[in-house]
Automatic annotation (TrEMBL):
UniProt main location, coarse: cytoplasm
The protein's Enzyme Commission number: 2.6.1.11
Keywords noted in UniProt: Amino-acid biosynthesis, Aminotransferase, Arginine biosynthesis, Coiled coil, Cytoplasm, Pyridoxal phosphate, Transferase
Protein name: Acetylornithine aminotransferase
Cited InterPro entries: AcOrn/SuccOrn_fam (IPR004636), Aminotrans_3 (IPR005814), Aminotrans_3_PPA_site (IPR049704), Class-III_PLP-dep_AT (IPR050103), PyrdxlP-dep_Trfase (IPR015424), PyrdxlP-dep_Trfase_major (IPR015421), PyrdxlP-dep_Trfase_small (IPR015422)
Subunit record text: Homodimer.
Cofactor binding, note field: Binds 1 pyridoxal phosphate per subunit.
Residues noted as binding N(2)-acetyl-L-ornithine in the record, renumbered to the chain: 133, 272
Cofactors, names only: pyridoxal 5'-phosphate
Coiled-coil region: 372-399
Modified residues (N6-(pyridoxal phosphate)lysine): 244
Domain of life, source organism: Bacteria
UniProt keyword annotation of Cytoplasm present: yes
Length: 399
């Protein structure tokens, strides 16, 4: 049964949404769903946020695209605001997460090339990582299920077990261009990395001359209650990939770097036709207007704590379905005992959207604008779904 002319590479639900309002999504036949998936951590300010709609509409009437052959004042302004808020001095705008990671990887390699070290191209990453679906980033992620059937794995990528400092030290050497890591693994199952481990990474990079790349594509732009997740740790990278929440649904990404590292990408070395176009820059600036406003991130922290606490209660009362809560801010995950696919389907039945991840974890990634009342509503629905899964388990046992 393949009536659609679309490629069959996605396993889609049968829901079809017509519009959104804040944290709610509404189907064409009027059913309302509480969106705790945010289109996989993308709709940071929910759906149809008035400030973003206005910014996009205003820009749409003026100028859509001009290419990077000309000045981009809104891009320069957005870059300045991002660098003011981070370790970085320079920003390259792109269109997606994978493209932001590719830029970071290319920049790291070219940095060493420029220092007469052309063989220094190895990128070290961690098991369970996800860095995107391009040929380069599937090699970086190193997961067999994403590499299978796509020809030889791109050379220069090696992995070590997550959190294993000894394995890392054995792997890193004069051939290592960079170490890349997600401060919290997203697709891998909301697996947090020890702050201590990130500090050890920074030290190892400083000792060996390797660059440190943070993949904050999922963790960034306020998701954990800081602008970027690594800002909880006191450890700064040399390069950072950002995407997902930065456009709150408008496709865009960015690669951030220190001045010294960014200078490796001199004119002609790298580029993108669409990256940083006026529509994206208008939306990106509007997103920052909201997220960088006084008190916004503190609110995310508060709501994150409250949500996590409530989820802990839920987990305790449903041990047949859940095992433990993980995550920081509004990047939360529940490790399930029951199959996560069954739970996500039951949640959908209860009118709430969540996202499955690796390690049998369900991700709870609501818009950062979710209210305490909506969090309470989410809990009711998540509870209903847990009860439904328990009933199904009982029926299964009775057979
Ligand atoms: C989603 C994601 C990517 C890939 O982003 P795309 O926009 O799908 O290319 C890379 N890294 C992490 C950590 C992600 O969550």
């Amino acid at each position: 049964m393949s009536a659609s002319a679309l490629f069959g590479n996605y396993a889609r639900s049968n829901l079809s949404f017509d519009h959104g309002e804040g944290v709610w999504l509404v189907t064409s036949d009027g059913r309302r769903f509480l969106d705790c998936g945010s289109g996989i951590a993308v709709n940071s300010l929910g759906h149809a946020h008035p400030h973003l709609v206005q910014a996009l509409q205003d820009q749409a009437a003026k100028l859509w695209h001009i290419s990077n052959l000309h000045q981009m004042p809104d891009g320069a302004r957005l870059a300045q605001r991002l660098t003011d808020a981070t370790f970085a001095d320079k920003v390259l705008f792109v269109n997606s997460g994978a493209e932001a990671m590719e830029a970071a990887i290319k920049c790291a390699r070219r940095y060493h090339y420029d220092r007469n070290d052309p063989d220094r191209y190895q990128i070290v990453t961690f098991e369970g990582a996800f860095h995107g679906r391009t040929l380069g980033t599937i090699a970086a992620g190193g997961q067999a299920k994403y590499l299978e059937g796509f020809g030889p794995k791109a050379p220069g990528f090696d992995q070590v077990p997550s959190g294993d400092l000894d394995a890392l030290k054995a792997m890193v050497g004069p051939q290592t261009a960079a170490i890349a890591i997600e401060p919290i693994q997203g697709e891998g199952g909301i697996r947090e990395v020890d702050y201590e481990f990130l500090r050890a990474l920074r030290k190892l990079c400083d000792e060996t001359g390797a660059l440190l790349i943070f993949d904050e594509i999922q963790t960034g732009v306020g998701r954990t209650g800081k602008m970027f997740a690594h800002q909880w740790t006191g450890v700064d990278p040399d390069l950072m990939a950002v995407a997902k929440g930065i456009g709150s649904g408008f496709p865009m990404g960015a690669c951030l770097a220190t001045e010294e590292v960014a200078s490796a990408l001199a004119p002609g070395t790298h580029g993108t036709t669409f990256g940083g176009n006026p529509l994206a820059m208008a939306v990106g600036n509007a997103v920052l207007d909201v997220i960088l406003a006084d008190g916004f991130l503190e609110e995310v922290q508060k709501k994150g704590l409250s949500f996590k606490q409530k989820l802990s209660g839920l987990v305790d009362s449903h041990p047949k379905v859940f095992e433990a809560v993980r995550g920081n801010g509004l990047m939360l995950g529940i490790k399930c005992t029951a199959p996560v696919g069954d739970y996500v389907a039951a949640a959908r039945e209860a009118g709430i959207l969540a996202v499955p991840a690796g390690d049998n974890v369900v991700r709870i990634l609501p818009p950062l604008t979710i209210s305490e009342d909506e969090i309470a509503d989410a809990l009711d629905r998540l509870e209903q779904a847990a009860v439904a899964v328990e009933e199904k388990l009982l029926e299964g046992a009775a057979e």
